[in-house]
Predict the 3D structure of the following.
Amino acid sequence: MSSPKPDHAPPPAWGSVPMLPVVGALIAGILVSDAVGYGLARPWLVAAGVTGALVLGGLYFRSASRWPAIATTCLLLLLVFLLGGWRTQSSYPPAREDFFLAGLEADDLLAGEIMAIRPGEKTLRAEITLTALLGADSLHRPATGKLLLYLPPSQKAATLVAGDRLVFAGTPTELRPPLNPGVFDLRAYWKRQGVYHQLFLREDGDWRRVGTSATGIRATAEEWRRTWFKTFQDHLTGDRLAVAAALVLGKRDLISEEVKSAYTDTGAIHVLAVSGLHVGIVYLLLYTLLARVLRLNRTRGGRTLVAALSVVAVWTFALVSGLSPSVQRAALMFSVLALGGILRRKTYIFNTLSIAAFGMLWLNPATFFQVGFQLSFTAIIGIVLFTSYLTRLVYFGSRLLRSAWSAMAASTGAQLGTLPLSLYNFQQFPLYFLLSGTVVILSAFAGMFLGILHGLVAGLGGPTLMAELTGWLLGTVIGLQNAFIFFFGNLPGGLLKVPWFDGVAAGLLAVSIGGLAAWLRWKGRLWPVVTFLPLLVLGGWVGWSHNARQLERQSARIIVYHISRSSLMDYTQGTAAYAFGTAPTEEELPWSAGPQREQWGYQPRLTLSLLPAADTTLEAGAALQFPCLQLGGTRWLILDGEEVAPKTCDLAPTHVLVTRNFRPAAFPGLPPSASPPTVVVDGSNAFYRLEEWRAWAATAGYPLHLTADSGAYLFPQ
């Protein structure tokens, strides 16, 4: 009598997923290489060469013994690790000999091609891939690198499209780090895209278009994208047009802040960025048509045709939608799945993911540090690990209910997979994700199908009755999706914010979720420990961090923010919080005081002018009697450039706040003190004044803090 079949599958053999440890070694090499710094490509390559020779020796002198085989495998993984480090070093743009900045001379012109362009209210931003430097002798010197080119809005600039080639004059500058605490680090974001410099042009005469790469694959894809978008414009307007363009084409520049905020707060923002979900829908729609409806996969030739058409469709969509990292990953993954369909080979999803990851990381190791890349992979991993188990928890007799429950299970799996990264990067979590995520997945299927159908009907047939029908259906689906999102967004308590969530907490939560997946899949006594022990440690870590933050809040904290042409200070002590200066607008908050206030959990009770009409005394040791401001144990002297004659305080100040272009030549004499005060020059001062203050501080011997250079001033530091 045969033994009963276990109700759980054993862990897969490593032979089923050989690429998993390989891609792990590659990622380890990328991380170590990035941590030790750049400019070390040769040592990594030499070490890889030596290790490669040892691997070849181990393969040539094979042994029947187990340990030599294990040693050779370890050497092979070490080789991949070293190659990952070398590839990271060699692909670092500024380290290349032909990097544009290395050969840029004073009167050179720069030549490059527009890869992407985004219009704005004040400037038009173009992502440029540089190709050459043009000297005064008109000689072309090949150059590489990327930069962000900001152009003034004009009729001339409005005609630019991706693929245009430009020649322009100017001196690029390095991207700057954020100047206020907690704000989004644009420099780090663009650094991971291979962009390190920017250039602002003031006049249309500083640049000219010299041609276009209209015959390239990318240019053709961009033209298809514009034509496809035009079919949407003929039938959709407002938020429906913006969301449809983002959902189907990856065109996000039309989305309003209100719509973006609603999708973010409900955990559905991923649907507005073309990703693996969208590529999967395209693959599934075409596969269903070819294999399920037309039944072309019954023969070897039919399977080859289905796979070839699927791969072509997936990569065509990837190109038209902008070829983002998540789309590249998904296109690679579905290409491997299609190949498995031809050979009728069982493809393990983790092996498929590993192949996709290896290909992307080898081409561009910096891709690993992009949040979109990380989220797309962890979402798929979460779906694979949890969806099957969750689907079997509840059985519905209705096919429609089963489909809805499967969508909810997939949404839950994706949220579990991305939870540590989401909390770490965005520090918030949508509590209604189960409902909003299900609605979005179902509507995304309908929206993608109708968007593709409408593009074909309207693009090929022009303005017909059928195009009117598909356009109306697409607008209706998108309108209902938006209505659902705003409904969930307006429900009370829909968003959990966790500003204290750091890397340690994210790591502990990731281990716990991994243990839960292993427990559900393989049972065993070890996995509950792996699941719950990190949660207990996480709880202790959160409690300790919260208590430390509360103790820190009891002491006085002062922040002088950097806001262009404006002044703003925050003062907190215990539960009291006050602001001094000009209150930032809603548009300015995310780049000024908003992140810091949210992280520390306070909102100012009042925002007081630094030049009040009357003296003001507040609680928590705050008092304002212009030009003197007392905050806790500090005394501030305010020097305002629009005051006719500067005044001083009776007591020696510990700090001096310089606002609105006050000149150092008018610096008043101060009461004697044991140490000179720190002079803080904020963003309300023009850039041409900063050099004057640098020279004055060097002569007078005063500590100087320029928020335009060093960012916001924090006390205590």
